[in-house]
Records
---
Amino acid sequence: MKYDVIIIGSGIGGLECGYILSKKGYRVCILEQHAQIGGCLQTFRRGKSVFDTGFHYVGGLDEGQPLHRLFDYFDLLDLPWKKLDEDAFAEVIMENRPFFLASGHERFADTLAKDFPRQRKQLETYTGFLKKIGDGIFESFIADFANSSLFESSAYLFLQKTIDDPLLRNILSGGSLTMELDSRKLPLYVFAQINDSFIRSTWRLKGNGSMIADRLAGHIRAMDGEIITNAKVTRLIETDNRISAVEYNGEEQVSGTYVISDIHPAQTLALIPESRHIRRSYRRRISAIPNSFGIFTAHLQLKESVLPYLNRNVFIYRDNNIWDHKCSREISSVLVNYKAPRDGIYTDVVDILAPMHWEEVAQWENTLIGKRGAGYETFKRQKAESCISLASEKIPGLKNYIEKIYTSTPLTYRDYTGAQNGSAYGIQKDCNDTLGTIIVPQTQIPNLFLSGQNLNLHGILGVSMTSFFTCAKIVGMNNLLKDFNGNIR
Ligand SMILES: Cc1cc2nc3c(=O)[nH]c(=O)nc-3n(C[C@H](O)[C@H](O)[C@H](O)COP(=O)(O)OP(=O)(O)OC[C@H]3O[C@@H](n4cnc5c(N)ncnc54)[C@H](O)[C@@H]3O)c2cc1C
């Protein structure tokens, strides 16, 4: 079967590329290795509850804000979005005290200035800087890539220079469990763009992340695109320096004029091991780049009508050492996420997320889902207990509210999304090595392109931007921008 574009992977990046190109009249075919589409947007059901895996909230969805413009284009605005409390979209508990992060740059600074009156000016400098970066987010569309020099600046040094008070620095970093706080590597661009989007406004879905995937997939199919599930891409067949066909499940083939890979660049290159056009140095560089840490999640199914829904995220830290997360038996930091109820005041699901490095689960790397053995079950149970104990600082008696506990580790993510070493956010960007860690969509094979969280920024906002950068390589950015509602500049 011949298509215009074959897309490997149905994560949000693959689906968005499929949507953009379908809108432009290209016939696309998305190949997904799993039965369920969506990658990190996958959900699972147990009894009456549906659990999210790699999606909990987004930032910048109010009118005029960056994600609003993107989701307007993708027709995702009328999903049941719920804005988190403006006076505290997040609560950071540190030194056993709560500190509140409020929506809007001024209110954010004002709220923290109540706890840190002497740091008011510095807080205003901080929010002013983030706002400037967020206001300029679409400039990267004109440049065709977010190649801002801020990728070369360190987030950690920026905080050191801007804010005197070490506790306040930690609080400002405390809502950033959604990125790896590596003091030597984390680029200022990643830190500023993501935090700015949450300060503008933070949202959950009254429902699950799969709604995003289903909406995009529905549109793609309606525009004559195809999505084939249970189709693991096993080889890219190269003829005369072009990918002439894509093999899946070791036997079937489809072909397209262009191929976009939404999976890790190293895994993409492994699908063409013999290519003479991919330089060995490029292969070596891509496979040597470290990936971000993974996430452990304790998914708690709660008894009926016991815990009122809390319309904010809660980040709890056992100590002040929040940068450079180390493995330890005890969980030292968690994000507590309440699932927004469809109606009523009680939540049925609380997810507790904690950073987890691959080394902690590496001993079970050769095992399969559901057959990893008693040692792994004990490991997960202890981690879940440690998460619940830390979360109980916010929800006293939490243990008594729990009906059932389900868990996921970096191994789970590896097996359900193909993420390298179960990494949560893909290639770890390094401000000291931007050339080495910022990957561009174009590969050395002219009709093969990359997309997804491993390029540029991770997360829903970052991946959505990258989908445009990738598709622009095929149809041209000016051509794409014509379809945007309003002026992108
Ligand atoms: C625990 C966790 C929580 C998160 N929470 C948030 C959040 O609240 N907000 C936010 O903005 N971001 C969040 N993120 C990050 C966000 O989910 C990701 O950045 C984003 O969804 C990645 O999308 P993607 O398309 O790049 O890749 P993925 O979602 O990883 O999709 C890749 C797809 O490719 C498929 N695939 C892999 N190999 C093959 C193959 N050989 N053949 C066919 N298909 C293949 C996979 O099965 C998968 O479906 C979270 C991530 C994690 C892990």
---
Amino acid sequence: MNGAGQAASDSITRFRGDTASLPDVVNLLERMQPEYYGQEVERIFRRAWLPVLPLDEIPQPDGYCVVTVPVLKASLLLTRDGQGLVRAFHNICRHRANRLVAEGKGCARSFTCGFHAWTFASDGQLAAVTDASQFPGLDRAKWGLVPVTCETWEDLVFVNFSDQPEIRLRHWLGELYDGYHGYFAGREQIANWSIVVNANWHITVNAFTEGYHSLFLHRNTLPDYQGGKGNPMRHRPFLEVMERHGRYSAKANPAHAMPPVEACAYGHGRKLYPAFPPLDCSAPDFPRGINPGRIDDWAFDIVEFFPHFVLIQGADWHQMMWFWPIDVDHTEIRVLDYAYAAGSVGDRMAHSYLRVRNREVFREDISTMEAIHAMMRAGATPTIILSQQEMLIRKHYATAAAMMAVA
Ligand SMILES: [Fe+2]
């Protein structure tokens, strides 16, 4: 292909999936009303399969971790038994409803409440009752921990809060389910932080599922990592919508010039974002979900797991982001960064640069979330309009509307 043809094709997005029916105009203000939000909690979050934790937080048999789920005002106790099976329970003592495990993670085969010392095994069974003679006729089998439906997928634990989940996790994830086998293996966690923002949850998720803004909002932090002559507006070369979820691939700018500090940070370790070394997808067992459109000069993928989880995947790193609603006006964002396992000081420098870089860019994104929320609250206009490059946001609202339509 000649230069001009190449340049033209670089800026064309290849869409996969049914994009024709997705709305370009969305009533955002409607979704910022307390009554509407209350219905979202019940119709979306209580029905959805929700990723809550990466498995590496409970890596060992007999490991456990406490995870809060703000949107459902829940505290979960996730346990892993001697065979590695992961279970989820409401973190509540069945005696007087005290929080069973205060917080944190560790290794334990049983959990004793600090109030009256009832003890529960990691499989949820009520293992010991203090002063048991004073509970005549107590049937211990009926007073175990309250389970929450739980399944694991790759490196993530998912839960479902409905009494009877309508579908299994495999069905919920659809095409995503089989596409990432092995991708998460061998990584180490390099950042773990959270922040509460004054913004509705939709606004926060939407900040990460389009690249249209990167040229403008991130003009100082990421001046030339994407785009270039053939794709000046940084169009996504590949974008896919599924039954519920969506993903796109971003293209690197091959002419990206590393500033001195980046060259120094990556001088003795692997190059990471915002530099993008070539990716070889040719191995037969290479996960087909990574760079699913098999584009050249691949930079990274972004996947929205509806409703509230976004995964950014690079060649040697990935970032997990949770957008947990607290109430209609507040969202807790949790971020975990992972990279290849470090083997040298140079690798550590590379990790540090990625960690700092991601956080710096993230701060810019947060500034828009709170501004949008504040502006919408003024009530001047209820709607927003979305371009074709913001197709994953269109999909987000279409999935939300479909779930809200089922009483
Ligand atoms: Fe951004």
---
Amino acid sequence: MELSFKNKTVLITGGASGIGFETAKMFTQSGADVAITDINAELLNNSTETLKLSGYNVLAIQCDISVEQEVENAVKQTVEKFGKLNIAYNNVGIQAPVANITEACGADFDHVIAVNLKGMWNSLKYELRQMKVQGKGGAVINCSSQCGLLAQPGLGAYSASKHGVIGLTKVAALEVAKDNIRVNAICPGTTDTQMVRTAIKDYPAHMQKVIDGIPLGRIANVQEIASAVLYLASDYAGFVTGEVMALDGGCILV
Ligand SMILES: NC(=O)c1ccc[n+]([C@@H]2O[C@H](COP(=O)([O-])OP(=O)(O)OC[C@H]3O[C@@H](n4cnc5c(N)ncnc54)[C@H](O)[C@@H]3O)[C@@H](O)[C@H]2O)c1
């Protein structure tokens, strides 16, 4: 067995930056054709251009994950370009401003749920349909968070959405197991991306507390998260489905 994705097509949502982009990079380096979707057209074009200049087969698709029709089109465009879909990494996730439920804004709650949870449902619906039609199995990895496993005051909408991602993952895993499609979730802890750098700038005291509470004593780098996605997508994880993998430096232990 080798960790090669030659002749595999991978779709990554929200892949223009952070963990998603690193995952796209690692899949292309391992031989895959990679379709990358993102809502941010400029970021998407810049990121995919870097990969194309390195000679990799990459397709950029602008797509708002919360809009069902756009997600259906993104899967269609991927298959038109590369002929099939074997692996999907559903990476998109956004944060709401930190606020306790009593102070939080309803519109922020709705937006986070629309992107993080309905967006995940949209993605699963069309990716799994395509994989089922192909009849050759597949692997899907959904991005939850340590906030999908734990409670952190001030993160009600985000935490609810990420707990929901775990629920969807388990249901989907059972629904497509007979089609030999595996569906797993990762739960990253605090990871060095733009989202976290912004949070450190906007909420320094809150973020310092978060970092101080990590048993391994540091935040993760994006390669450490992307590696787990590649493992779950590979034949090494051939008997793993419905799994919820914490990548959090030990946070759920304390
Ligand atoms: N960075 C962390 O510390 C951390 C911790 C736990 C979980 N996560 C999760 O990891 C995933 C990636 O996070 P990241 O830190 O790399 O974030 P990021 O902000 O760097 O990347 C997210 C990408 O999603 C895109 N996006 C946002 N809304 C979208 C929409 N409606 N449709 C399509 N694309 C959209 C953004 O343009 C961006 O490119 C998220 O699901 C996040 O919740 C991150």
